[in-house]
Design goal:
Blueprint (H helix, E strand, L loop, with lengths): L1 H9 L1 H4 L6 E9 L7 E4 L1 E3 L2 H8 L8 E9 L2 H14 L3 E2 L14 E3 H4 L2 H14 L7 E2 L5
Antiparallel strand pairs: 1-2, 1-3, 1-4, 2-6, 4-7, 5-6
Helix pairs in contact: 4-6
Pfam family, one: T5orf172
Protein name: Bacteriophage T5 Orf172 DNA-binding domain-containing protein
InterPro entries: Phage_T5_Orf172_DNA-bd
């Protein structure tokens, strides 16, 4: 995992020029054509409510829910660490057009390859800690 090591050596304050406080969010969806395949995304934003609103149009043609979110001091740094770690586990899903909005949402991962949501959260907790934060999950159980 040389990319992870290199990113950690840069540190959260130096890795991304426009990085700063914000949110990590985790929507899940059922993969099209695969009833049992659940995909999860780790995304970042500085305005969670705006991002939530943007995903509303994605509900057409697929099941999509926001599960949880957390705050972090360096959102881009933490998100990149999560993506690198999940790719190393072999959980990456190739992007495909969203049935609701037509956009190709990148960086979804197969939840069963990771092991499940608790294992996903372990990766998120590790990344948020590396970014100088403390992982405190905010449950979001209402459909977006």
């Amino acid at each position: 995992m040389p990319q992870i090591k290199a990113l950690l050596e840069l540190g959260p304050a130096s890795a991304y020029q426009n990085d700063g406080p914000g949110f990590l969010y985790y929507p899940i969806r059922v993969a099209p054509g695969y009833q049992a395949a659940v995909e999860i995304k780790a995304g970042h934003t500085n305005d969670f409510r705006r991002r939530q609103h943007q995903y509303k149009k994605c509900k057409k043609g697929q099941d999509l829910w926001f599960v949880a979110y957390c705050e972090t001091p360096y959102r881009m740094f933490a998100e990149r660490l999560i993506h690198l770690r999940l790719r190393a586990l072999g959980a990456h899903v190739d992007s495909y057009p969203c049935p609701g909005c037509g956009k190709e949402h990148r960086e979804f991962f197969l939840l069963d390859i990771i092991g499940g949501f608790p294992e996903f959260e372990d990766v998120v907790c590790w990344a948020v800690t590396q970014a100088g934060g403390a992982y405190i999950r905010q449950n979001f159980l209402v459909e977006s």
